[in-house]
Amino acid sequence: IIVVGGCTVNRCTFRDNLGGHSEPSRLCCCVHPSQGCEPAECEARVCAVDPSCCTGPWEPRCTQIAGTECFLTCSPPPGCEPALSGGGGGLYHETSSSTISDSTFIENRSPSFGGGMLNKNGHPVLTNCRFVSNSAESNGDSSGGGIYSRDGGDLTVTGCSFIGNSATGWGGGLALGPSLGTTITNCSFERNSAFD
Question: What is the pTM of this model?
Answer without folding.
Answer: 0.68
